[in-house]
Amino acid sequence: MVPTVARFSIAPVKSLALEHPGEVFLTESGVAEDRRFYLIAENGRLVDRLIAGRLVQVRAHTDPDGGTLRLTFPDGRVIEDEVRTGTPVVTKMYARTVHGEVVEGKWAEALEPFAGRSVRLVRTSVGGTREHHPATIVGDGSLDLLASHLGTGRVDARRFRMLIELEGAEPHVEDTWIGRRIELGEAVLHISKPVPRCAITTQDPDTGERDLDTLRTIISYRGLRDGEHIDFGVWAEVERPGSIRLGDRVAVRDAVAPTA
Question: H or E element: which one contains 62?
Answer without folding.
Answer: strand 59-62
